[in-house]
């Protein structure tokens, strides 16, 4: 029932808290964790704007922009690596995925591609607005996911 689990993380406190729940699913038959971070389109657009501005000064727009995107990806890889180590130590097989675009769309895409049986995610993320009962990503994932969703509250 919980063989392959998708764990999307934005490195927020609530997503971190979900890790403890995730580990407990070993006892429910979980074998493999797909660890996912989505580099938000907004972040990529910001790179675009910043480096377009720089382009007018030294015409190095393309190399600089690509390098910045590569560094961003490396940074996410470095953040995911210790989480993968922790999950492997808990006895799971781990697959890391870094996607670019809109979190909900990418989470649902990976859900299909990896044929996951369940998704574990936080009720809130990095915004963590006090007044929000639930974050926008988690709300949409719950509505649109095909598989079972375990929503860990903040
Ligand atoms: N960029 C992302 N990549 C991977 N997972 C994400 C991303 N953004 C949000 N999530 C997942 O969705 C959960 C809820 O986040 P979200 O709905 O964005 O709340 P908030 O509005 O507080 O930021 C997070 O705890 C995390 O599990
Ligand atoms: Mg968010």
Protein architecture, described:
This protein has 154 residues and is an alpha/beta fold. It has one domain (4-40, 81-152): Rossmann fold, CATH 3.40.50. The chain is 51% helix and 21% strand. α2 (41-58) runs antiparallel to α3 and α4 (103-113) packs parallel to α5 (136-144). Residues 8-10, 12, 14-15, 36-38, 40, 103, 121-122, 124-128, 135-138 line the site of adenosine-5'-diphosphate. Residues 10, 125-127, 135, 137 line the site of magnesium ion.
The helix fraction, in percent, is 40-55%
Count every helix, treating DSSP H or I runs of 4 or more residues as helices.
5
Main sheet record: 5 strands, parallel
Unreliable runs: none
Mean pLDDT: 93
Number of domain units: 1
Q: What is the structural class?
A: alpha/beta
Say which CATH homologous superfamily is assigned: HUPs
Molecules bound to protein? adenosine-5'-diphosphate, magnesium ion
Number of strand segments: 5
CATH architecture: 3-Layer(aba) Sandwich
In short:
This protein is an alpha/beta fold. It has helices spanning 13-24, 41-58, 61-89, 103-113, 136-144; strands at residues 4-8, 32-40, 93-101, 118-122, 148-152. Helix content is 51%, strand content 21%.
Strand-helix topology:
Blueprint: E1 4-8, H1 13-24, E2 32-40, H2 41-58, H3 61-89, E3 93-101, H4 103-113, E4 118-122, H5 136-144, E5 148-152
Parallel strand pairs: 1-2, 1-4, 2-3, 4-5
Could you name the key traits of this structure?
154 residues, globular, Rossmann fold, alpha/beta, binds adenosine-5'-diphosphate, binds magnesium ion, 51% helix, five-stranded parallel sheet, 21% strand, 5 helices
